[in-house]
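Protocol step 4 of 5: obtain the predicted structure for the target chain.
Materials: sequence only (see below). No template structures provided, no constraints applied. The aim of this step is simply to have a reference model before the mutagenesis design in step 5. Sequence pasted as it appears in the construct record:
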Amino acid sequence: MPDPAEDPVDAVKWMVQNLMKDLQEAKMWPIKMASMKHQEKLRSSLAQAAQSLEINYFELKAVVDEVARAEDQDIEFDLEPACFDILSKAVDARTDYHELAEQAAQLCKPVRKKKDRAKSPAAGSTATNPPSKRPRAAQGPPQLEFGDNLVDEFATGQSSASRAGVWGDMMHQGGVYHDRLAPVLREAHRDFLQWKKANKVECSQPRFTPARLHRLSCLTIQSYGK
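Step 4 output (structure tokens):
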């Protein structure tokens, strides 16, 4: 095993590769085919590696993904459950995990802008629909939209698509997850499927597809119980 003091990333990579080899020899890899005992072995070993080598969750996930790609494994399906588990066990202070979880909790609640809110129509004028109910112009096949300001997305009233999009971005880019947010994720998943069906969604931005949201949602719900 490489010296953790000299190269912690190589040390974790070595451990992951050996775990994969052990599981393959036991016909328990990919991980979705493994027994609960072997899955727990993989998760706990990776968590211990992260703690003992003092690396954070994001660094560990990058290493795991790199090894999985080299081994031609389906990293999205096979390793995500383990990574979510590692997040709760092996995260270190540098990830500011709790702060991110709080941000996620706030973003997952539909909000309205308090400033620059449109003034009420003058007396006698015809009232228009509020922003949250204003119909969109037809623009061809609908696409999921992820603005730079996620809070503004909620303020425009695109609650179903945006709430799902926020969760997708959070999980895709950092794996932010917290047990108490599971109900919000399940709600987002339901909203997203309804929005997709109602709008006959045919495509979305390449960096986050409806299929990936569906997969991550199912995996997370499966991992933490319905």
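Step 4 remarks: The chain has a mean pLDDT of 47. The chain has two domains: 8-94, 96-110+141-224.
Proceed to step 5.
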